[in-house]
Amino acid sequence: MVGSIVWVTVGLLAGPVIASTTSRAAHGEPLFAGRWWLPKVGEGAAVSTAVTTTTLALVDCRFDGATVGPVWSWFAVTGILLTQIDLVCHRLPRFVVGAMFAGGLLLAGNDALLRDDPRTLLEALSAAAIVFTSALLFALIVAPRVGAGDVLLVGTTSFYLGLNGWSAVALGLVLSLVLAAAAAALLVLVRRVGPGDPIALGPAIIGGALLVAAFP
Prior knowledge:
- By secondary structure, the chain is mainly α.
- The chain has helices at residues 2-26, 45-63, 69-89, 94-115, 118-141, 148-162, 166-189, 202-214.
C-alpha cells in the first residue's frame, strides 16, 4: 500500500514535468536548461500526469513490492518521456536514453545485491551489449535511416528485458517489430504518413518491453 502511494505521488509530480519537457523538445528548446523541473501549466500536463500515474500504479501492482519493481518504474517514467518526445518530433534524446540506462543499472545493481544474484545483472548487461552491437551494425549496413537514438534505446530496453532472461529479450524485440509494423500500416492506411516516410520507433520499442514485463 505504501509503495503504491509513493509511485502514484511520483506520477503526479513527474507527469507535468514530462509534458513541459516534451513541449520544449517540440519547440527545439534545450530540454534541461534553467528551471526545467518547474512545469508549465496547460501543456498536456493533465494527460501526461494521468498516463504516468496510471502506468506507475500498474507497474507497482504487477511487481507487488518485489525488489525489481523500482527498476521497471524508472523504465516506465523515462519511457513515457521518450515516447511523448518521439511522437511529437521524432527524437530520442541521448541524454534521456542514457538516464534510462544509468538509472536502471543502479537500481538493478541494488536489486542484485539485495538478492545476492549478480548473474542476472551480468546477463542483462550481456544482452544490452549484444543487442546494441547488432542493432548498430544493422543500422549502418542495412537500414541507415534508423536513428542513433533508436539503436541506443534498443540496447537499453534489452538490458531491462535481460533481467528476465534471453527469452524475454527475444520476445521483446519481436513484439517491438510487430508494434512498429502495425503502427506504420495504420498510419499509411489513414494517410497520416506515406509509404516511405519515417515513423517514431521509440513507442514500439518501449511498448514491447512493457508488455513482456507485464505478462512474463
